[in-house]
Amino acid sequence: MTASLLMVGITITLFILWFRYTCNLILNAKPAKDYSRQIATVNELKFLQIQQWLARPEKEADLDAMLGHLDCDYRLLTYILRHGAQFRIGADQVERRILMLDYQVMRLWYAVSRRLSSSNSRRALMEMISIIGHFANFMGERALCRAE
Asked: What's the pLDDT tens digit per position in 71-128?
């Protein structure tokens, strides 16, 4: 029984490590051209302003309000990605699903760390911003490919 619990614990730990490593690899891959700013402007998304605000640690911020704005941006982009015909095709489906799960994990981590540590909750918000930026860039790339 003890050996089984140990194996389950090790398996879960390895899965978490793999998941975090995969998310970091996806988010740290730099595209040739970043379209996230154009997509944010056209769709009136706020994630870039929130990113600039969070980059200044001396400023006191209403992190819960920022989370609300990020959630609105996330819902809009994921709706478009799920329902737009040009976005449902391709090998990027698994990558997007992993990042969607990571967004929810970071949202949960934000809720847990909000009361304990402002720096951890800021880091969770920054990763959520990276995910939204990745989705916005993906939309811009696909829109450009479709236009050409």
From this structure: 999 999 999 888 876 666 565 788 889 999 999 999 999 999 988 888 889 999 999 9
127 neighbors 105 (Cβ within 8 angstroms): no
Query: What's CA 18's distance to the chain center, in Å?
Result: 17
Q: How confident is the model at residue 28 (pLDDT cuts 50, 70, 90)?
A: very high
Q: Specify the residue for token string 């951890």.
A: 120
- Other CB atoms within a 10 A radius of the CB of residue 66 amount to 23
- Quick one: which of 82, 95, 77, 98 has its CA closest to 140? 77
Output phi, psi for 88, to 5 deg: -85, -10
Closest CA to 27 of 88, 81, 111, 99: 99
